[in-house]
Amino acid sequence: MRGTIRGLTIAAGLLVSVAWPAARAEEIPRSALGSRTVGYTYEVTVTVPPGAKLAEVAVPIPREDDQTVLALDLTGPGSVSVRQLPGGDRMALWRVEGPGESVVVRQTGKVTRREVHADTGRADGAVIDPAVFAGAMAASPSVQITDEVRAIAQRETAGKDGVVARAHALYDWVYEHMNYDKSVPGWGLGDVPYCLRVGKGNCTDFHTLFIALARANGIPARWNVGFPLAYGDGPPQQGDPVPVAGYHCWAEFFAPGTGWVPVDISEARRHPELHDYFFGALSGNRILFSRLRDASLALGDGDRVRNYFIYPVARVDGVEMSDGVAWRFTYQDR
User: Fold this and answer.
1) In the chain, what percentage of residues exceed pLDDT 90?
2) CA–CA gap between residue 81 and residue 78 (Å, rounded)
3) Parallel, antiparallel, or unpaired for β 281-282 and 179-180?
4) DSSP string computed for 172-219
5) Chain segment 148-178, per-residue pLDDT in tens
6) Sign of the alpha-carbon dihedral angle for 132, 137, 138, 143
7) At what angle do helices 163-177 and 147-157 cross, to 10 degrees?
8) What domains, with CATH codes, occur in the chain?
9) Can you give the pTM of this predicted structure?
10) 22 vs 50, 96, 246, 288, 331, CA distance in Å?
């Protein structure tokens, strides 16, 4: 099948292909932080149990916030559709009847990601309306706002005037409290009590803690997740596609007069020379896929509320698979 959905080419056919670029010890130069245009492939292989009648595969599609999706192709057996999700996310959903032993689907695209600089000097003292930002100010299963979180938020922002100053104080506190360290079991869930107790984790832990502290202080804050691109890749079209082993996430807070202001505390922790940069700015070395948090994909009976959505979800005869789902994400500068 081939069709067009909202200006994007959708094809149905087949294919296959990951590893995260290692943290670089040397300092990151300013020239490596700019905008990027990349072609990418996101491929999923599902090993199907014998006798299955229907296989479904859901994969997120890049958003258009601070980036432009220049091309998008969805290939694989069966039928494929693009569905809207809560908060403006989109996903591709393949439905394959009589899937046989395996199903292979592929999303290929081309994205231009802009370097972001928020003008925090425009922030004003306008009152934030809780009704307008209800979803970005409330506690949730993932964003736990405990008495300890409230106490820290109040203590660290005492005497700070304005949303930006208060958010910066919380950014600095998380930066000092957390270490980018995945050695203690429990990391990667954004478990706020774990983050407070252990002080270690990955980007999910850093930014869930920041979001909880910001919301506890009356500052709207939200989650972003996608795939990272290595800093300062070589000339376009040179070499083999670069594999990416895992997602990357960051956060934003809302400042009246400015809008949404990005922060990437875990990346600042990994590259301390960028501590100031990553409050209010984002490098182009990422593709944003999703802001969904604590929501389901509306796949039907048995679908569950998810912490976040970046990796593929596969269901066979209405039952979500916990094993037998392999994915590969690669990119190449264009």
Assistant:
1) 84
2) 10
3) unpaired
4) HHHHHH-EE---STTTTS--HHHHHHH-EE-HHHHHHHHHHHHHHTT-
5) 999 999 999 999 999 999 999 999 999 999 9
6) positive
7) 120
8) 8-115+294-333 (2.60.40.2250), 117-289 (3.10.620.30)
9) 0.90
10) 39, 36, 11, 20, 15
